[in-house]
Amino acid sequence: MFEGGSAERASSNRKRGSAHLKGTRALERLRDRIDLAVKELHRLREENTALRRELEAVHRGKDDSVDGTQVVFTESPDELRQKLEDYIALVNDIIETESNKAASEEAGS
Question: Are 57 and 63 in contact (CB under 8 A)?
């Protein structure tokens, strides 16, 4: 009778050992996921700090990240807008011409 009980205990221990290994692996995966989450939070905090500094610099009227080159337009905003609209119209005309040309070539083929 003791022998049977011993076999049952051994079998039970093997089952618990297997469950223990699965539980350990699950805990290790959870720990790894938590480590990744902590690293990502740290990265996001650093990025947030850098963005906050940039925003503060913009609010102060200067941008520390600029390399010193400034863009100055001699035209008024309305003149710039008109030039931009003219360029857009030109590009649209070129695209339309090329599309029509391609379509007529396909039709002729």
Answer: yes
